[in-house]
């Protein structure tokens, strides 16, 4: 069963199901009653098969059925016709946009099954814009098998805040037959056809960090930096945090690019950037990388927004390469990695995770070990260092940041004429938690 959990948790599942005995409820065009079947299709319109390995496809029959149905003319049938792998399963899915404003999604369907040896049931999955799983629910734990007549089944889950798509599906694991008919999706108890939509949902949203049309690379002597550019105007360099990538600024880039030429970069060894070195990493090295990136793009002066590690790099750039920095905003930055800057609990957590990475020989784990070692050993800045900064600086942090508030305030006090903003109720992840307020704060500072 553990193998199936792994398999099903990686599905891009879907389905929109339920209606009533003879007449399906409105479904916003999702064909939840399975009555629309285009010529040449074996499955009802809008529905697709899912299988983890191509061998599973040949293990099953998937089709519309005109003989056995709950209502209307058609039902959806999944049947195992042969077994080539004990892990085999078949899932029929449909994907809907996560454009609905409600908090809870309920997926209902009428199911009939015959001779099911393992289990059958419903699934729901939410993905972000990159297709990464945000949440997953299934009926696997109910272990429904054997034979059963038509019955309505239901599955609920809370819609993740940053979901781009929601997939619903029916699944048959192992031998047997499964019929699916008259389905319904409810948003906060109302049929999906009546659900309110989010005013800011963008069906064509860009997966930042994965946009080839906006991408470029810069080859350094011992690394290749991947970057993406958006918008026009003064340059604005975005620097992400430890073990992150460009996508960390998913909720900033669109707003910032309305006024500025945003250059979002993956730091060496992270995201799509490479690193050919094996020694210790440092923020000075990252700052040198960014200088070379700017030189290659013929940018002599830029604004910078740095988050966490990116903030540390931004501070070093303002000290080492002052002519390159116009205005600098740093979120959750620190000058040194001691309990004067971070709580002991956070430092212990980093040490524990580092020990785990050191046990692995995988290349990714080795890179993570280097990055976490840097967290414990870097940066090596002093308050006298940041007093040398001439650029206007905005120092940002969450009220419940990983960085101690007294340290954040001390940084702002040390930098000449720096502005300090502590986001009430936010943490180290304010750019994600309160993007609108965060973006407005940064733009007001740079626009000034």
UniProtKB/TrEMBL annotation:
Residues 235-350 form the AB hydrolase-1 domain. It comes from the Bacteria. Keywords: Hydrolase, Signal. The keyword Hydrolase applies. One of its GO terms (molecular function) is triacylglycerol lipase activity. GO terms for biological process: glycerolipid catabolic process. InterPro entries: AB_hydrolase, AB_hydrolase_1, AB_hydrolase_fold. It holds the Pfam family Abhydrolase_1. Residues 1-19 form the signal peptide. This is Alpha/beta hydrolase. The lineage of its organism: Bacteria, Pseudomonadati, Bacteroidota, Sphingobacteriia, Sphingobacteriales.
């Amino acid at each position: 069963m553990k193998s199936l959990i792994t398999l099903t948790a990686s599905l891009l599942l879907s389905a929109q199901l339920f209606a009533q005995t003879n007449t399906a409820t409105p479904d916003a065009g999702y064909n939840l009653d399975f009555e629309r079947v285009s010529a040449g299709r074996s499955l009802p319109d809008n529905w697709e098969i899912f299988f983890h390995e191509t061998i599973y496809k040949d293990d099953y029959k998937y089709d519309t059925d005109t003989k056995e149905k709950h209502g209307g003319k058609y039902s959806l049938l999944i049947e195992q016709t042969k077994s080539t792998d004990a892990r085999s399963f078949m899932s029929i899915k449909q994907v809907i946009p996560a454009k609905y404003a409600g908090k809870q999604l309920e997926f209902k369907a009428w199911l009939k099954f015959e001779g099911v040896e393992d289990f059958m049931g419903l699934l729901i999955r939410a993905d972000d814009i990159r297709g990464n799983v945000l949440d997953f629910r299934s009926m696997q734990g109910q272990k429904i098998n054997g034979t059963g007549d038509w019955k309505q089944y239901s599955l609920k889950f809370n819609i993740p805040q940053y979901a781009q798509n929601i997939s619903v599906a029916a699944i048959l694991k192992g031998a047997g037959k499964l019929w699916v008919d008259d389905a319904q999706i409810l948003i906060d108890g109302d049929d999906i056809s009546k659900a309110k939509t989010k005013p800011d949902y963008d069906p064509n949203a860009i997966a930042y960090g994965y946009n080839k049309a906006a991408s470029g690379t810069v080859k350094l002597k011992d690394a290749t930096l991947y970057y993406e550019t958006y918008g026009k105007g003064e340059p604005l360099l975005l620097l992400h945090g430890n073990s992150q990538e460009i996508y960390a600024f998913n909720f900033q880039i669109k707003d910032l690019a309305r006024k500025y030429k945003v250059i979002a970069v993956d730091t060496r060894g992270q995201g799509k950037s490479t690193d050919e070195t094996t020694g210790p990493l440092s923020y000075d090295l990252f700052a040198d990388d960014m200088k070379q990136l700017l030189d290659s793009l013929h940018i002599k002066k830029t604004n910078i927004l740095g988050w966490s590690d990116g903030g540390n790099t931004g501070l070093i750039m303002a000290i080492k390469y002052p002519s390159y920095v116009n205005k600098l905003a740093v979120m959750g930055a620190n000058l040194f990695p001691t309990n004067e800057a971070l709580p002991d609990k956070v430092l212990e957590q980093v040490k524990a995770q580092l020990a785990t990475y050191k046990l692995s020989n995988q290349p990714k784990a080795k890179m993570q070990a280097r990055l976490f070692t840097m967290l414990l050993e870097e940066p090596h800045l002093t308050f006298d260092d940041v007093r040398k900064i001439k650029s206007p600086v905005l120092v940002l942090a969450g009220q419940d940041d990983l960085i101690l508030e007294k340290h954040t305030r001390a940084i702002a006090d040390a930098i000449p004429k720096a502005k300090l903003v502590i986001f009430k109720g936010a943490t180290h992840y304010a750019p994600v938690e309160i993007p609108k307020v965060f973006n407005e704060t940064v733009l007001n500072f740079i626009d000034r």
